[in-house]
Amino acid sequence: MVQRFADHLPVPRTIGIVGGLGPYAGYDLVRKIFRWTKAGRDQDHLPLMLHSFPGWIPERPAYLLGQTKENPGEDIGGIMAQLARDGATVIGMPCNTAHSPRILNVALERQHQTGLDVTFVSIIESAVKHVRELCPNGGRIGLMGTVATLQTRLYQDALEKAGLEPVLPDDDECALVQRAISDPEFGVKAFSDPVSSKARQILLDTARRLVEKKHVSVILLGCTEIPVAVTESSLWDTPVVDATSVLARELIRASCPERLKDPSTL
Length: 266
Prior knowledge:
This protein is of the alpha/beta class. It has 2 domains: 15-122 and 247-265, Rossmann fold, CATH 3.40.50; 123-243, 3-Layer(aba) Sandwich (Rossmann fold), CATH 3.40.50.1860. The chain is built from 11 helices and 9 strands. The protein has helices at 23-36, 60-64, 73-85, 101-112, 123-134, 147-151, 154-161, 171-182, 197-212, 226-229, 243-255; strands at residues 15-18, 48-51, 90-92, 119-121, 140-144, 165-167, 218-221, 234-235, 238-242. It has a 5-stranded mixed sheet with strand order 6-5-7-9-8, sandwiched between helices. The radius of gyration is 18 Å and the shape is globular. It starts with 14 loop residues before the first strand and ends in an 11-residue tail after the last helix. The model has no long low-confidence stretch (mean pLDDT 94).
């Protein structure tokens, strides 16, 4: 099969996405890659593979919180290896929780065993780098995410290393955010299209309290389910950083930087 691209542009590297974590988060990342790609015709879009087999991957929070011994990294790594064998040379994973070293290191080791040259783009590193650019002199960063992501300090450690101060919701608010994500009666995982008004309101109320009571400079959505419900780029005059959108841009940059749209054109 011959891939056809504009003669004046370099051939892009193929993007592989580990989907199913959850399924709408994978879809959301693909949509945002399309949104951020310069393309005047079908053939100008980047080659991309979405591997969304959610039944293959055990629960990430359950493993990190000690509720199961089955490490999801084994199966995630198997998916990465399959994407690499199918031609992906840039891989992203729209799940913050799965970036815990206890999971990610196992997954990357399985992928490395293929012997294929693949670049993994971290959603954590990408988001923190973007926040640092927004706050070059430091700042208080309001962080929203799953309980497992917060307890494993994925973002807190990365933000502090970048000279930024992570600010979390109160414990009861963190529990509510978790319910807004995963509650089977109204959470984003159960109701993604459309999102339930209850889940969205919980997330907005939490963001508002971070701004009004904890005086944060930026709100960082550190769970890929949250941007499915909270799509605003600013709330109460405070920038909102969607880690999924940042990851989309970094995957484009790693594939073919000439295809990345200028934000001012959107």
